[in-house]
Amino acid sequence: MPDNLDDDPSEALLYLYFTVRYFDEQLFKVILSRTYNLRGTDVEVQNLFKDSRSYSRLTVENSFDRIKLNRVCFETALDKDYMDIAFHFIENGYVLITWDMVTTMLKNRQEYLVKQCIKY
């Protein structure tokens, strides 16, 4: 893990997702303490991590906050061209694929992911 995650808040967001996914609250707190740049992200992302109860809300698989986190992280993976992370969301059915997401994949030349969306 990088010493400072302030340079790229999207990287911090993905690290936070995986700490929630694999139930590591201690690492979640460490990443939040090293990330001050989440304030510069969307209000939606800021609201996900706004208080001390954020971790417990996000660990509930079908909670509204978890669904939002999954969507935001999937879109981040598409934007950063992290195909393996995007595939993780598609394969496990963690996101509802919209037409806008498909057009983004095609625009980014991520045809492989579109095929996986059809498969899964």
Give structural notes:
This protein is mainly alpha-helical. The radius of gyration is 14 Å and the shape is globular. The mean pLDDT is 87. α1 runs antiparallel to α2, α1 (9-21) crosses α5 (64-79) and α5 (64-79) runs antiparallel to α6 (83-92). The chain has one domain (9-119). The protein starts with 8 loop residues before the first helix and ends with a helix. Helix content is 65%, strand content 0%. The protein has helices at residues 9-21, 25-34, 43-48, 54-58, 64-79, 83-92, 99-107, 111-119.
Keyword list:
about 120 residues; mainly alpha; about 65% helix
Would you kindly provide a brief summary of this structure?
The chain has 120 residues and is an all-alpha fold.
Tell me the β content.
Answer: under 5%
Contiguous low-pLDDT stretches (5 residues minimum) are none
The number of E-state strands comes to: 0
Please count the helical segments: 8
Mean pLDDT: 87
| First-residue to last-residue Cα separation | 31 Å
Describe the global form: globular
Describe the protein's topology.
Elements: H1 9-21, H2 25-34, H3 43-48, H4 54-58, H5 64-79, H6 83-92, H7 99-107, H8 111-119
Helix pairs in contact: 1-2, 1-5, 5-6
